[in-house]
Amino acid sequence: MSDIDRRRASRLMAEAGLEALVLFQPEAFRYAIGAPAGVATMWGRAGSAIALVPADEGATLAAIASDHAAGQIRKAVPAVDLRTHRIWIDMVDLNALDGQMAGPAEVDEAYRAQHLQGPRPETFDLKQCFALLGDLLSERHLQRACIGVDLEFMPAADFAILTRLLPEVCWVDGSETLRRLRAVKSSREIGLLRRAATAAEGGLVRMAEAVRPGVPLGDLSAAWKSGAADAATAGGFSLSGHWDFISVGPDLSDMAARVTQGALIKADVGTLVEGYSSDGARTFSFGTPAPLAGRIFGALEQAFAAGLEQIVPGNSFGAVHAAMLTSMRKAGFGAYDRGHFGHSVGGGVGIEEWPFFSAGNGEIIEADMVVALEAPFYGQGLGALMIEDQFLVTATGVEPMNILQRGLVDLAAR
């Protein structure tokens, strides 16, 4: 099912002067339609999968996708208005044939009956896809409408072809409208992000257990991945991906570093569930770290708490940044200056998503946003220190999706 709140989408499109959104990014297609866009999106070009979201919340969602992806889309969202195009993959339905008795003639007849004969394109036919979009817009009386496109994704060459083939449409950048839609999560999206956070923390527990003198950074990364995968299995779900940024010791560029006495160990990690990535971080030490590290971490804890107090509906993302930077300055770190202290998380192509807790950002915090709040410090010659948690914004504040303590944990004291 689609994760779009159609009423909210209608309001946001009205505010932007749009009569519809036409989305080309594969992740945006999945978000809008409720089914994967298919393998033809691997080329990174616009057109192989297209979602149409009318501003009229009562109008049916529409999609253009490959004939290869059509079966899965129809099963997942049978109500969608789906148009298909041929891609390079040859496929025919042979369910009606007796596999023991049928031969080439019967297979050819199946192709003819299903109107599948004829050459296929090398990958997919971009112009045919845009022609199907033109037909769809004409049927919906949108052929001269003002339509928003996710231009933050769409290649310039493909947009030039689109505007040449469908010149009567008023094409404008709908990226901001899409970002605002995606920033507020559906209950399904929230559930996926909870699972992803749980798996990532399971990995952190496993990684901490693996810390011993002389253990290389690569082994800690492997332990984290193993623990995350096992946590997902125990939770009855699977991971679609993972990422980790782990540092050990004072040299932040040493990817072959080993655990030594007093070393700082920072793990900024995330797992993906159906493309939705968590984001969280913890810092450990092996033995007592340098006094400066303890002082910095204490300041980060205070800044984190100050920012967390500001995450309430109606407040601005910029207010969170201001509170955290002010806290760091009060702690004596007057030259510390962080571009952002966190961000939204979700199903986009990157780990960090708009809106950001950045200076002067007037974007308003809303209920059902899922955000990652982070307080990092990187000191070459000292090590990395970081606190980061993922939160669901509620009507009154926040609900944490993480359970591990945020303190600087000495793993040698276990």
Protein model, in words:
The protein is 36% helix and 22% strand. The strands form 3 sheets. The chain has a 6-stranded mixed beta sheet, sandwiched between helices. Strands 7, 8, 9, 10 and 16 form a 5-stranded mixed beta sheet that branches. The protein has a 5-stranded antiparallel beta sheet with strand order 12-11-13-14-15. Helix 10 runs antiparallel to helix 11. The longest helix is centred in the middle third of the chain and has 24 residues, at 187-210. It is α+β, with helices and mostly antiparallel strands and 414 residues long. The protein contains 11 helices and 16 strands. The two termini are 47 Å apart. It has 2 domains: 6-88 and 123-183, 3-Layer(aba) Sandwich (Creatine Amidinohydrolase, Chain A, domain 1); 187-413, Alpha-Beta Complex (Creatine Amidinohydrolase), CATH 3.90.230. It is globular and about 75 Å long. It has helices spanning 6-16, 26-33, 67-76, 104-113, 126-139, 156-165, 175-183, 187-210, 217-234, 291-310, 317-330, and strands at 20-23, 50-54, 62-66, 81-85, 146-149, 170-173, 241-248, 263-273, 276-277, 280-286, 340-344, 353-358, 370-379, 383-393, 398-400, 409-410.
The helix-and-strand class reads: alpha+beta
Radius of gyration from CA coordinates:
25 Å
Strand content: 15-25%
Q: What is the top-level CATH class of the largest domain?
A: Alpha Beta
How are helices and strands ordered from N to C?
HEHEEHEHHEHEHHHEEEEHHEEEEEE
* First and last CA, distance: 47 Å
Overall form: globular
The major β-sheet equals: 6 strands, mixed
Low-confidence stretches are: none
Please count the beta strands (DSSP E, at least 2 residues each): 16
> What is the correct CATH architecture of the largest domain?
Alpha-Beta Complex
Total number of helical segments?
A: 11
Strand order of the largest sheet: 4-3-2-1-5-6
CATH superfamily of the largest domain: Creatinase/methionine aminopeptidase superfamily
